[in-house]
Amino acid sequence: MTKQDRGGFKNYMRNSQLEGSSDDELDDVSVDYSQVFPDFAPSQLARLSVRDMMRESQTTSSSTGETSHDGTTDLTDGKSSSSVSDDSGRNNVWSAMTKRAQTTSETKKESQSDIFSEDYVEQKAASKSIFAGLFSRMYEDFRHYLHTAAKYPYILIYTLVVFTVLLTAALFVLESIYKAELNNLRDTARMEALESGNSIAEILAKALIPLRSLQQAIIHSSYFQHLPHQIKQRPMISGENSKEGVLDYRNVTGLCDDHNLMKEFSEIVQGINKNFGFDEHRIFNYRLAPYGVHCFSEPLVNTHVFNTSDHHTTSHDDHEGDHDDMPEHVHRHLMTGMNDHDEMDMNEDKEQVFDTRGDIGWDPIFSEDPLVLETLADVYREENDLVIMGPEAMHGKEVFVAYLAVNFEGYNYTAFGKPTNAFGFVMHYIDWTQMLYDNNIFKKMSDKRLHFELTQPSHEHMDGTYHDHQVVIATNLDKAELMNHTNMDDHVHEINKALSATVEIATPVGKWTMVVALEKDPRSSIILTRIICVVGCLFFSMLFAVVLVERQLHKLLLYKIMPANIIQKLNKNETVVERYRLVSVFFSDIVGFTSLAGEMSPLQVMRMLNELYSEFDKIVEKHGVYKVETIGDAYMVVGGAPEKIPAPEAAQKVALFALELMEFVKNFRTSNGDRIYIRAGIASGPVVAGVVGKSMPRYCFFGDTVNSASRMESTSQTSRIQCMDLTYRLLQDAPSFLFHLEERVEGGQKGITLKGKGMTHTWWLNGVSGLRVSTECVEKNCEKCGNNHEIVPSATSDAIIQSIALSRQDWKRIGMPDNSLVAATGHNQVMIDRVTAILQHRLSIAMEQRGQDSMTSKQKQQLRLYVSEIAFMYKNVKFHNFEHCLHVTTSMHKVIDTIVGSIESGKVGNGSICQELWQNAFTHFVMVFGCLIHDVEHTGQSNQILAAKRHRVSKRYPGPSAERNSIYISLDLLHNRRFNALRKAIFPSTEDRFKFGKCIFWAVLGTDIASPETARNVISRFDVVHNVRKSIEKKRRLPIDEPYDYDPALCPVGPYVNDFQKYNHITKSDIKSHPTELVIDQQGLEYCVAVEHLMQLCDVSHLMQGWENFLKFNFRLYKELMDCHRNGTLSNPSSNWAIGQIGFFNNYVIPLAKRVEKICGSDVASLQFSTNATANVTRWEREGDLITEIFVAGYESGEAEAIILKRCLENENAEFSA
């Protein structure tokens, strides 16, 4: 409703005297809206009501401050106006957004009115295509899915694997179906081959029976018995078919043309045909050859079998149409092949006839054709068996010619020089083509979509020699002419062996081969099926990919709601409760939000918070902190959970996040160009985290730390960050940055009053800068400069300079405040930097000695991170803490540097047990590394106490429990993937891994000095090595590299070989490929003795250094044991403390110092181990009782260590670091 519309409506209501009416009265009023709003559409007028219009008119008037007709202005009270700006008078974003909503132009309101009208919505909806919208949505979804799949390669890999598996399985099934079908078809082809082949063989055998019947008829007939003797007497002549000059005919005139004999022969043949059901189409000619001379032929002239006009329409009803089933190409083949030598002639009607008159009188024994002579030789053999020739192409047909000798007593015929009792022979011509059609083989094969080839072996005389090969005698393949004797090999490519079946058929003429093949490979019928399978597999793979993408998107969404490990526990239906010892919690809220949210629409609030917190989330990801939740305008973040990291590092991350957040808010403007202000608070301490509820679960943090962080935020000031005192101390130990913190002072009083906590000391976090170091002073309350400050590590300090400075300090004064680089300090980051510098220096030398490249920045970063994490694993006990670790590490560094310096100067100590060790830089690094880790997670209790208490460490690691636990924790951390680059620098080869592991075990296990067994074994190994070395050097009886019979119990790693393999990630194959690595030899024992003795020495090095160091660490050890006494795990050590120290010096420390001096020779003479120890025990004998009393009184009163130590040295001018 525009301003003009509201004015018109108000005038109408005033004129109608309806102003001030109740809602019920307004509902009963009927108004003609067309008079009030003449420009409104009917559909708009239908939705108007008097009550709604009255409310809108009143609301709009009050919000915009319109002037009424009586001259008064409707304004909001001053309270609302003042709430939209802060104390400084700057316009707040909420007031700006409220004013903007109230002062929108009339034109914009009119357009908005139009936009939200039903007519407009309907028009817009109608104007958009449903299909276009659907396509656009699908396209966006596709792009999103494709982007997700590309971002997470496992989706594409899994999809490809699924597609491959599905396609392989589908193709395997199809191939199995194909093979099964192929086998069935081949079985069908085999059965068809057997059936058709046997049928053909039977027809052929049946066609030979009439010839035997003719033989017997001639034998038993008296009409023809005189013919051989008479023909034998007839002279030889040249016939009409004879070659020039060749006499191969006999003059049989009067014999073979005798009408009675011809009639008798014809009647015999016709009777036989009739008896066996043959006609002139099947057996189209019979012949009788007395004395081997062709004499009688029935029929003499056959005018039916070769008549092409009669070929397809035989006069016999039972065969009518048989040839119609013959394939065209076979018919074409059979109707060709006429030649000049065939017995073919034309009758008067120009029809083809089979005329045998020219053969009457022919005596084939005189033929020059070797095939004819060979055939006759077969006919006259003693076996008197059938001789069958063919099939041969004859006038468009395939013809078999069968010969059968007629033998009986009384006849004498000499053939080929061999006498026989043959009368002669009979023969007949079989129409092989007609026999095939009688078998109906072409139709059967065609109906079953089969190809076939019927072949017989042939022994042909060619080029003067005989050749054996297979001749095709029947086929339905469209290949060469069937009547030609085509070799089987010509048809091999026509028949796929894999698709065919071959059988042998026994026939009267020998074994024939029938090959029946599938006309079409069934594989071709499944091509479409294969394509469908591929498409189907692709489709299901895409569905699988969609499922993976959806799952990944679901996981990403879940991981934004709560951590991955929490989700895994929820999936297992586990209760999620986690405790965090020390985290930092951040809270922030928007200044003035609570009072202003009610003056804005919910949509405006939501948009505002979304813009702001979306940017906050980016900063969260940048600094690696965990966003817990947003409640209204409150934003909560945690550092150190759910991923556990050292507390100073967690506080550093949260502080950096908070500072960048404040900096961002200063420059942040909303889409409307407005600015906001926030305040924040940080608290550190323990928390408990867990998932609350089953429906709509949330990962929440609980505990006093969360409440304190909320209090820090609520009592903070605009654009400032307030933190608790513990957070301040953690930030002082921040690993990488120097934070600028200012103590909060209100009205001259430090701290503020918090609800439920009273007066609390808090700090303002003002900023951060790069690391710096103060080289002027190393103590708080320094007497020289009067400053009250702490040492701050320097990111730019050189590790080599730091390492050299530590190694150059006098042995007796290690840790004394000679300068800022060596002074003992409780500042954790300083200690971490020093240990890191020593390790980095030693590792760099080792890598150079092994020919490796220099340490990369990544390897240096990982080394410092590793040392930092190890440092925070040390417990806050009095003696076995990280400060003692630094002292031990520095002492080892000093000893190694002293020995190496002696060797480099050419002053190699005489009597040194293991000179090679001191030249191995990698061993030096591992010895220092062992000092770093040797007391990790030490509880301040001895192994005996742990065993008595049945502590979890003692249960898991019997024997040297604390030492084995330290090795496991340290090496397990080292093999974390975060330190891959560091491991490559430390042990690039398997040999280095073995050396590293052995040296670590020797060093750390040897520090269990409270164990009598450990002490005995250490001394036993020393005695063996020392005696063998003396024998080698003096008598030269045994070279060092030769074997020696050592007791296996001497190996310190032996009882823990499984731990050795597991902790160092050494496989069985590694041990097999390096069989000598765990073998005891002289050099290995010397290395072991040197490492464990130096480790033991450095572990108690304070006893062999200056009196000040001895007192400091002795008092710390006393306090640690007194803590055990208070816990009820140890009797009071005070009564025997003075005398006990003397016994420890005399029985352990001084003998150890002397053994080390024997091992190292004069190389360590300058360090005076035994001399210093003797001096300390001598002085303790004088002052020990008094000092013990001071220790007891100081512990009971809880006085500061520096005060107690100064009291012990009140007559001495000694320096101590507070």
UniProtKB/TrEMBL annotation:
Enzyme class, first EC level, given as a word: hydrolase
Q: Does the keyword Transmembrane helix apply?
A: yes
Q: Region Disordered: start and end of each range?
A: 1-30, 48-93
Report the domain of life of the source organism.
Eukaryota
Q: InterPro entries, per this entry?
A: A/G_cyclase, Cyclic_nucleotide_synthase, Nucleotide_cyclase, PDEase_catalytic_dom, PDEase_catalytic_dom_sf, PDEase_CS
Q: What is its EC number?
A: 3.1.4.-
Q: Which organism is it from?
A: Chaetoceros tenuissimus
Q: Which UniProt keywords apply?
A: Hydrolase, Lyase, Membrane, Metal-binding, Nucleotide-binding, Transmembrane, Transmembrane helix
Which residue intervals define the domain Guanylate cyclase in the entry?
Answer: 584-713
Q: What is its main location?
A: membrane
Low complexity bias spans: 56-66
Gene Ontology CC: one annotated term: plasma membrane
Q: Which GO terms describe its biological process?
A: intracellular signal transduction; receptor guanylyl cyclase signaling pathway
Q: Where are the transmembrane segments?
A: 152-174, 527-549
Q: Which family does the similarity line name? A: Belongs to the cyclic nucleotide phosphodiesterase family.
Could you say which cofactors this protein requires?
Answer: a divalent metal cation
State where composition is biased (Acidic residues). 21-30
Which Gene3D superfamilies does its entry note? 3'5'-cyclic nucleotide phosphodiesterase, catalytic domain, Nucleotide cyclase
Q: Which GO terms describe its molecular function?
A: 3',5'-cyclic-nucleotide phosphodiesterase activity; adenylate cyclase activity; guanylate cyclase activity; metal ion binding; nucleotide binding; peptide receptor activity
The cofactor binding remark recorded in the entry reads: Binds 2 divalent metal cations per subunit. Site 1 may preferentially bind zinc ions, while site 2 has a preference for magnesium and/or manganese ions.
Would you tell me the protein name for this molecule?
Phosphodiesterase
**What PROSITE patterns does its record include?**
GUANYLATE_CYCLASE_2, PDEASE_I_1
The yes or no answer to whether the keyword Cell inner membrane is present is no
**Localization terms from the record:** Membrane
